[in-house]
Write a structure and sequence with these properties.
Layout lengths: L6 H5 L4 H4 L23 H12 L4 H9 L1 H15 L1 H9 L2 H4 L3 H15 L2 H7 L4 H11 L6
Length: 147
């Protein structure tokens, strides 16, 4: 059985959508922040994985979080069947392999990313994310009292 590789693994360059994400809120009081897409697997799943990795979350937990996209996919599909049947038919016509969401895909993505760039942080900085903004993101989202 061949392993699927997420498209981001083929270039290991943040897609334009990731490179142009607004910087984190300037003050901790500006949180929470929300990011989303249609089903949470691609852009949102990758962005969530990158943030979780920056925060020191273990890969198995990141992968389990990624798989939660299955629930949003079900809700999206139900909505589309009722309100946008043509779009629902398009998604239904796609091969199961294109729509699959499994932990091993995210685990492979993270391994490939680190093999090519050393770390998520290195990839983001190479893509133009300022180190200070990444530091602020981690500081705002990690409760040091819980460590």
């Amino acid at each position: 059985m061949s392993q699927r590789v997420h498209p981001l693994c083929t270039t290991m360059r943040p897609p334009q959508e990731v490179r142009t994400i607004h910087p984190p809120p300037a003050r901790r009081t500006s949180w929470p922040a929300v990011f989303h897409c249609t089903s949470g697997r691609d852009r949102t799943g990758i962005l969530a994985a990158l943030v979780l990795d920056l925060l020191g979350v273990p890969d198995d937990v990141i992968a389990a979080d990624y798989v939660l996209s299955v629930d949003s996919r079900r809700a999206r599909d139900a909505y589309l069947r009722e309100h946008e049947p043509e779009r629902a038919a398009f998604f239904a016509s796609l091969p199961a392999s294109v729509l699959a969401i499994d932990a091993s895909t995210m685990e492979q993505f993270l391994r490939e990313l680190r093999a090519r760039h050393g770390s998520v942080r290195a990839l983001l900085e190479a893509g133009g994310a300022p180190a200070a903004a990444l530091d602020r993101l981690v500081d705002d989202l990690v409760d040091r009292a819980m460590e």
